[in-house]
Amino acid sequence: MAITVNWSITDMTHVDSDGGVIKAYWSCVANSDGDPSYSAQNQGKIICTYDASAPGYIPYASLTENDVLGWVWDSMATDDVTAAEAKAAQEANVTARVQNEVNAAATTESGVPW
User: Fold this and answer.
1) Residue among 70, 4, 71, 61 nearest 32 (CA)
2) Helices 65-76 and 83-106, interaxial angle, to 10°?
3) Residue partners of 30: CB distance under 8 A and separation at least 6
4) DSSP-based three-state secondary structure for 71
5) Which partner from 1, 24, 34, 57 sits 20 to 30 angstroms from 95, CA to CA?
6) Measuring CA to CA, how many Å separate 48 from each of 13, 41, 68, 112?
7) Longest CA pairwise span in the chain (Å)
8) 34 and 18 Cβ atoms separated by less than 8 Å
9) Rounded CA separation 42/50 (Å)
């Protein structure tokens, strides 16, 4: 049995005049491949500030999901936790929740022995 984790941007709010993104909604979902399958999800939103004149500015129409996911992971960083560590912690959380469901289902069975 394997558990896969997928990140996605589920919605964004942007300013029409200059394409600046002001909100991005994200989801981190873990799924097991067994039968039955189990899943767990963490989700949230980030509030974005932007400067349309900045050199690295990317307008809404030119963004990729990976661009915005990078913003999400960067927003999770703190003085003590890097963006990569925060991303890994989210993934570990949903993976552990799915594994707990798989383990709970594996410890009981119904039926008769004959």
Assistant:
1) 4
2) 90
3) 3, 4, 5, 39, 40, 41, 91, 94, 95, 97, 98
4) helix
5) 24
6) 10, 22, 10, 58
7) 75
8) no
9) 25
- CA 60 vs. chain centroid, Å, equals 20
Q: What is the bridge-based pairing of β-strands 21-32 and 3-14? A: antiparallel
Contact (Cβ atoms closer than 8 angstroms) between residue 28 and residue 42: yes
Q: Both tokens of residue 19?
A: 């394409």
Taking only the tens place, the pLDDT of each residue in 35-76 is 889 999 999 999 999 999 999 999 999 999 999 999 999 999
* Alpha-carbon span 87 to 91, nearest angstrom: 6
Residue with token string 């119904």: 110
